[in-house]
Amino acid sequence: MDQKEVIILQSGDPWLTNDSLRIVGIFDSEDSFEKFATQMRDKGIISEWGYKMLTGYYGNGRQCDIQGGQLLVTKEPLNPMLEDVNL
Distance between CA 50 and CA 62 in Å, rounded? Predict the structure, then answer.
């Protein structure tokens, strides 16, 4: 069965320490996330390079600098089955 995933955008300090992370948004598709990332780029929150990093243009490691911190993108399973997770 195809496992559905959500895309989670978080912001944090420059080192992405656990205590600094907060969820900015949860997206149900790459298209939805790319629209949001485009808005961030157009408003100058992220650079073109940052846009490409966050949208996966350069592969894994979807994070970029913002003023005073970093943004981080992860994909997480939606409604996983216990046997599909590593606990």
Answer: 9
